[in-house]
Amino acid sequence: MFLLLFAVIISSTFVSLIYFKVKNNFHGVKDTIESESREIHGPKGYPLVGKGLEFIFPDSVETFKKIIDYTQKWDYRIRAYAAWHRFVLVAVPEDIEMIMTDQRFLEKSEDYNAMRDWLQDGLLTVSKKSKWQKRRKILTPAFHFSILEEFVQVMNQQASVLTNILKKHAGGEGFDISHYISLYTMDVICETSMGTKINAQTDVNSEYVKAVVELSSILHWRQHHFLARDNWFWKWTNNRKRHDHLVKKIHSHTDNIIEARRIEKQKNTLNGVPVADDLGIKKRTALLDILLDSTIDGAKLSNEDIREETDNFMFAGHDTTTSAINFLLYNLAKNPEIQQKVYEEIVEVLGSDPLKPFSVNDLSNFKYFELVLKESLRLYSPVPIIGRYLREDVEISKNIKLT
């Protein structure tokens, strides 16, 4: 009897919390959804919770399938709400282009909130328009062709490491290559962004690598669990404590690199010599160096500002590049005749030596490979969903207005 009573009390408390959480937001949600164009339809939900019950304990694959099913069923524009979360999902290219190119709509949606403890207000997660524009301006030089050209050597070196690892599987049974690709891209991104080697592919005991992999997994879990996305419910989950520990570890690692590089640059500036490695060779200009030399409104960026951008660059670059390469390999495996054509073009450009490094000039000669890569990106986007918070009415198509 006591256990039954206890269960009833706990359940009642839980339901009450959800009710008050929803009630505070429900009227605004309902009014907004009802005032949106009748041309946009969507799945009907339950009172108060909307479609939330379908996403309390979902599998990420099933979640994505449901989103695809909904968009196809409702002509690629749907409106819905799940408890206190309301949204309009559009999958029409013209609608997406209109929203993504409008400077009024730079504010990120709440879908990015789960990453903010780690990435804070970096370029990927920042919501304030003015801050985004200023950060974007100082980061643009990092993508200049001359700087990217410097890092082709890094990509070649890390690709050689990956090749040697994959050779062990040649002629054997099938295996999951995604883990190896993830470590490869982590090596490349970290060296190009922070100017330091982490040896993700070869050092199985790297604390930083293990922390990034585990934290990414936790964030992936949170992103697909409806209740955990809310900060109040999130703090009661088992993953929260581990998440906080990993964030501190990663921040500490990045802070140490930033401070060491700042001191090194100051020392070499005083001595009038360029920053060099142990062999006396001038170091490449990493993203970190650009941030250390940058100013916003006449002030140098703080270590925290720099950490935000390096962590954002590492996470966003590593995650998206990993997805893009994995999907490319998947498509090549599914289409062996296309795979053969790509191979023949590579041999034609680079020769038969599999260890020959490629140069930037070689890239322009991969005509067919470029088409294959772009088609793979079209079919399987590394970032399938992008969220924006709209604070103004917008007409996305004739007679279709979001308010």
Automatic annotation (TrEMBL):
Cofactor(s) named in the record: heme
Keyword entries, A-Z: Heme, Iron, Metal-binding, Monooxygenase, Oxidoreductase
Q: What family does this belong to?
A: Belongs to the cytochrome P450 family.
What's the name of the protein? CSON000502 protein
Organism's domain of life? Answer: Eukaryota
Per the record's keyword annotation, is Iron included, yes or no? Answer: yes
- Give GO MF terms, alphabetically: heme binding; iron ion binding; monooxygenase activity; oxidoreductase activity, acting on paired donors, with incorporation or reduction of molecular oxygen
The protein's matches in InterPro entries, at most eight in alphabetical order, are given as: Cyt_P450, Cyt_P450_E_grp-I, Cyt_P450_sf, Cytochrome_P450_Monoox
The lineage, from the top, is:
Eukaryota, Metazoa, Ecdysozoa, Arthropoda, Hexapoda
